[in-house]
Design brief:
Length: about 325
C-alpha cells in the first residue's frame, strides 16, 4: 500500500510578518528558510521556518496579512501543532518561554507530557520530548542542538466526522492506528518527524478561517512520480484532488477530507536550495520565475522584515 511518511508542512494564517519572525525564529529558534510570497496573492509574504536544512517534517509556513480578521479554532481545522524537542530539554523550554512572557500549561496524552502555549496570533502549539528524529543543528542565542526543536511531532485534528477522517488517515494515507485514549484517536506514520496524528473525538465549535488558525496540513510524497500515484489514488477514493500545482519548492495536490480539513500532498524535492544556497537560506526575497518581472513592484509593496539577533548578554 502507498503510504506517506508523515507531515510535509503546515501552513497557518497570521497578521504581522515581523512579529511572526520574531517568535518563530527568535523565541522558538527555528530557521527562516524561505522568504517568498503567496503565489496566489503576491502582495502577501509566504514565510517558511524549519530546521537547519528545511527538511520536510520540520516546516511551518505562514501567510501574514494584516487585514485579515481573527479566526476561530474549531472543527474542520488542525487544532494544535506539535513539535519534538530533545529528551530532557523540557525545563529549558519552560524557562525560555517564561522569560519571553509566553504562558504555558502542561498536559498529557498517550503517556506523553506536553508543554502547551500559543503564538502571538493565538495559534496553539505544544512541545513534546522524544528521542526519535535527527537533532536540529541550527543554533540561536542559547538554543543549541542539545535543546533545539527538531521538527514536527505531529498535529491534533478537529473534525466534523472523526471516524471519516480516521478512515482517510488509515486507509488512504497509510498511517497505522495506535488506539484510543481520553477522547483522542492516535495514528502513526513511518517518518521520524511529523509522524504522530491525533484526532479529537469530543465536539467543538465550527472553525472560522483567519489569523491564528491553520490553513492546511500537507503530507509527504516522495517525488513527482509518487505524487501522480497519490492523485490517482485520491480520485479512486472519490476525494476529488485538485490538479497538480507548481509551488517551486515542491509540487502538490489539495483535497478536502470529509471531516472538513484541507489536506495537501506535497513532494519532498526539489526543496529550498533550488533558488538559494544552503548557507543563505531565508536571506533574500525569492520569487518564482513567473513573478520575477514584478519584483520591483512587490518590493515596494511588501514591508521590510528581518531575523533579529538575540541579545544574549
Amino acid at each position: 500500500m502507498q503510504k506517506t511518511a508523515g507531515i510535509h508542512h503546515i501552513t497557518a494564517m497570521v497578521n504581522d510578518p515581523q512579529r511572526t519572525i520574531d517568535f518563530y525564529a527568535g523565541v522558538l529558534g527555528l530557521r527562516l528558510v524561505k522568504k517568498t510570497i503567496n503565489f496566489d496573492r503576491p502582495e502577501v509574504y509566504h514565510l517558511y521556518f524549519g530546521n537547519e536544512s528545511g527538511d520536510p517534517g520540520s516546516i511551518i509556513t505562514f501567510f501574514p496579512w494584516p487585514k485579515q480578521l481573527k479566526g476561530r479554532i474549531g472543527i474542520g481545522q488542525v487544532g494544535v501543532t506539535s513539535y519534538i524537542i530533545p529528551a530532557g530539554s523540557a525545563p529549558f523550554w519552560e524557562k525560555r518561554l517564561e522569560s519571553h512572557g509566553v504562558k504555558t500549561t502542561a498536559s498529557n496524552r498517550f503517556g506523553e507530557a506536553y508543554i502547551q502555549f500559543e503564538d502571538p496570533d493565538g495559534l496553539p502549539i505544544e512541545l513534546v520530548e522524544r528521542k526519535e528524529g535527527p537533532s536540529n543543528q541550527w543554533s540561536v542565542g542559547n538554543i543549541d542542538p542539545e535543546v533545539a526543536v527538531k521538527g514536527f511531532g505531529g498535529a491534533v485534528l478537529h473534525t466534523v466526522q472523526p471516524f471519516k477522517t480516521a478512515e482517510v488517515l488509515e486507509d488512504v494515507l497509510g498511517l497505522e492506528s495506535m488506539g484510543q485514549e481520553d477522547g483522542f484517536l492516535r495514528f502513526k506514520a513511518e517518518g521520524q518527524l511529523g509522524n504522530s496524528i491525533d484526532i479529537k473525538l469530543t465536539p467543538s465549535v465550527r472553525g472560522l478561517m483567519g489569523a491564528g488558525t491553520v490553513h492546511h496540513i500537507a503530507w509527504r510524497a516522495k517525488d513527482q512520480e509518487d505524487l501522480h500515484r497519490w492523485k490517482s489514488r485520491l480520485e479512486e477514493k472519490g476525494l476529488y484532488p485538485t490538479e497538480i500545482r507548481e509551488r517551486h519548492y515542491f509540487q502538490s495536490v489539495y483535497f478536502r477530507e470529509e471531516g472538513g480539513i484541507l489536506f495537501e500532498i506535497a513532494t519532498d524535492p526539489p526543496g529550498f536550495t533550488v533558488d538559494e544556497p544552503m548557507d543563505k537560506l531565508g536571506e533574500g526575497l525569492m520569487l518564482p520565475p513567473w513573478l520575477e518581472s514584478k519584483r520591483a513592484d512587490l518590493e515596494k509593496t511588501l514591508p521590510l522584515v528581518e531575523v533579529r539577533k538575540e541579545d544574549t548578554e
